[in-house]
Amino acid sequence: MFSKFTSILQHAVEALAPSLPLQEDFVYHWKAITHYYIETSDDKAPVTDTNIPSHLEQMLDILVQEENERESGETGPCMEYLLHHKILETLYTLGKADCPPGMKQQVLAFYTKLLGRIRQPLLPHINVHRPVQKLIRLCGEVLATPTENEEIQFLCIVCAKLKQDPYLVNFFLESKLKAMASKESTNVIAEDMLKGQDSMATDTGQPIQPEESPGAAGAEQMEKEDELPQQADDLSFSLDELNVTSLPEPSTVCPNQDYNLVNSLLNLTKSPDGRIAVKACEGLMLLVSLPEPAAAKCLTQSTCLCELLTDRLATLYRALPQSLDPLDIETVEAINWGLDSYSHKEDATAFPGKRALISFLSWFDYCDQLIKEAQKIAAVAMAKAVRERFFVDVMEPQLMQTSEIGILTSTALLHRIVRQVTSDVLLQELVYFVLGENREPETLPNINTHPLRHRLIEHCDHISDEISIMTLRMFEHLLQKPHEHILYNLVLRNLEERNYIEYKPLCQEDKDVVENGQIAGAIDLEEDPLFTDLSPDNTGAQEWLSVSPPVSPEHPKNDGKTEVHKIVNSFLCLVPDEAKSSYHVEGTGYDTYLRDAHRQFRDYCLICLRWEWPGSPRSLEKCNLEASFFEGHFLKVLFDRMGRILDQVVGDLMIRIQRIPDFTPKLLLVRKRLLGLEPEGPLIDHVTLLEGVIVLEEFCKELAAIAFVKYHASSTP
Fold first, then answer.
1. More confident residue, 343 or 77
2. Which among 20, 185, 478, 681 is most buried, taking Cβ atoms within 10 Å?
3. Closest by CA position to 649, among listed 579, 705, 585, 583
4. Residue 672 lies in a domain
5. Residues 443 and 574 in one domain
6. What is the reported pTM?
7. Where are the annotated segments for Disordered (predicted)?
């Protein structure tokens, strides 16, 4: 109480006293702080019971005022004094000793405000960046300490300054030898500083370049002792006189201590306080984006960043329940790493494992965004670490297991990761993990060269429909990703030689089939009522089909019309008219699929432009047409599965539907229920067959639309 009264009285005296020149006022406040250590006998009283916080705040205000009164970039006498007398070094020593209790918080706050409020660049000065570097080492040493908030604020302001001037990061890359020298000389520096001696290199306010920055005091050349101003003569005191115990410097010689700013932030990402952890993640996001190659290399090779990212991914993945509903994995709300807050009690859609799932997806999102923002060297290193230490070591055994429940859950998680990834570099590592890096044409004996790829493709035709559907959806989303290797590895590498073509001249029988460029008895597309609104001459169709690749010399415009007619008709006529129901429901016609097919085709054409693929296929003369054709494992499994579907539904469809009374009304009711146009009601007989007929009809319309769009694209100049 008496100390607080003294502080109030001190403020009153300062308010009534005549104003002093800024430098004298600045020195007065600094002397008041140093005299406290000389005169105090109670070193256990908290710093908040002293005048130290007030004096530090006054010093900051004076420095800001001085800068505002001067030309931009000009260093004033108060700032000169702070640099020349190494005040930041002294404060660092007092903060490290935490004398009086709470002094570390005050020092961290002073550094943070100084760097944040002063506009002129301070970090290039040796008597700024050196104590800043030392203070960084004190941050994150112990979690959940009272100084955690001040520590993260200080680290974040340093990161922000480096983001503004990336070259400054070179001041914060320490070699191990320099760190050892720094450890040996720390106490000497601190005592010299507190004695007011300027035995080390003197900062006169002129910034130095990074390459000139000495990394340790023991490596610096001694300079002549400068004459100190008279006001500072009575500031001489020693560590013993201050009753400050010089604590040992934090260890800086372990293998991963070259980039202490990163290491301190990594420690704080483990804070039990979520706000601190998120701030630490934000700081790391700033650091990985710095363009300096030396910093990127140091960050990935001399810190634990890659290990932290992957180890936490692995831990959170293993914390997931062995069985999760694939629908829950797919539909859990969009994850943003900075907003990983979830209350089970407030969630009406909670399910077992939701908290763990959100935590995993949130951290994966952070890794993805970190790699996306990172400098190229750092991005590649982090992505490779995720592939090796998480995808391969943790996910692959789960995807290769034989338990159907485990396969389904792990495939659903892989599907979610495929959908969620946005970083090009991480996407590449994910693609190589799933598909391997092989680009040679496949042969039947070598389809198992990448076991995970083989297993996942086999799962597309698994005995469990749930596993098959989930794996197919995973491949569907994978094929939509903007990476050339996906389509090439799964399909195109087996088609380049074009040995799927029957390369032989037309025989007389073939020639008789063609009359005037058309198959005998064929109906022209423009004459077919089904295609009235979809012909290439129609204005609407021209708008839909406006983006097309160039015409191939081997595919002239006038040779595909009859072929596409055959293909489209073969798909549309696969389901008998008696089994069709889409024309009874508005908005489910073939034109809907045509628009969707064109949109997908156009979007993928735009994606393919960046891959610089040739505009036409390899000429047949250069292809090995004698080699046996193998479509590849992926297409083989899909075609086998499709063939069985057609056998199971169309083979005896007409016979089966004739045995169902009121087939057409029931079929229409099932379609409306599937579309949500009719409420669920009494169970309908043969509902599985009716649903299968509807799905087959829609599937055939989709295939027909794709064929038509591809024909138009290949025949439009």
1. 77
2. 478
3. 579
4. yes
5. no
6. 0.79
7. 199-229
Cα-Cα-Cα-Cα torsion 424, 425, 427, 432, nearest 10 degrees, comes to 140
Q: Which of 195, 193, 194, 202 is nearest to 226 (CA)?
A: 202
Asked if 562 contacts 513 with a C-beta cutoff of 8 angstroms, the reply is no
For residues 476 and 570, state if they share a domain: no
Residues 483, 335, single domain; the answer is yes
Q: How are the residues of the chain apportioned to helix, strand and coil, as percentages rounded to the nearest 5?
A: 65, 0, 35
Same domain, 310 and 392: yes
Tokens 């952070």 sit on residue: 366
Q: Which amino acid type is present at position 554?
A: E
- Chosen domain end from 177, 210, 234: 177
What angle (nearest 5°) sits at the alpha carbon of residue 574, between those of residues 571 and 578? 130
Which H/E stretch holds residue 688? helix 687-715
Give the residue from 268, 467, 277 showing the smallest Cα distance to 359: 277
User: 319: helix, coil or strand?
Assistant: coil
Amino acid present at 647: D
- Helices 590-609, 687-715: axis angle to 10 degrees equals 50
Long-range contact list for 468-477, CB < 8 A, 24+ apart?
Answer: 468/641, 470/326, 470/408, 470/411, 470/412, 470/415, 471/411, 473/415, 474/411, 474/414, 474/415, 474/418, 475/634, 477/415, 477/418, 477/419
Q: DSSP assignment of 472-504, as one string?
A: HHHHHHHHTSS-HHHHHHHTGGGTTT-TTS---
Structure tokens at 349: 């859609």
Distance CA 650, CA 662 (A): 20
Give the H/E segment covering residue 562: helix 561-572
Residue 514: its H or E element: strand 514-515
Q: Is 559 within a domain?
A: no
CA 162/CA 375 separation, integer angstroms: 14
Please name the residues in contact with 360: beta carbons below 8 A apart, sequence gap of 6 or more. Answer: 313, 316, 317, 319, 320
Within 13 Å, how many C-alpha atoms sit on residue 663's CB side?
Answer: 17
321 and 461 in a single domain? The answer is: yes
pLDDT in tens, 479-511: 999 999 999 999 999 998 888 887 544 555 555
The token duo for 129 is 């960046």
Residue 193 lies in a domain: no
Distance CA 636, CA 634 (A): 5
Single-letter amino acid code for the residue at 183: K
Residue 664: burial class (beta carbons within 10 Å; 0-12, 13-18, 19+):
middle
Q: What is the pLDDT of residues 247-302, one digit of tens each?
A: 444 433 344 446 899 999 999 999 999 899 999 999 999 999 999 999 999 998 88
Closest CA to 441 of 502, 497, 503: 497
The secondary element (H helix, E strand) that includes residue 306 is helix 305-318
Phi, psi of 257 (to 5 degrees): -120, 20
Q: How is residue 407 written in tokens? A: 């396969």
Which is more confidently placed, 531 or 275?
A: 275
User: Please, are residues 212 and 203 in contact by the beta-carbon 8 Å criterion?
Assistant: no
Q: How far apart are CA 61 and CA 78, in angstroms?
A: 11
Element (H, E) at 519: strand 518-519
Contacts of 703 (CB under 8 A, 6+ apart): 571
State how far the Cα of 283 lies from the Cα of 152, in Å rounded to an integer. 9
**What is the number of helices (H) and of strands (E) in the chain?**
31, 2
Residue 514 pairs in a beta bridge with 519
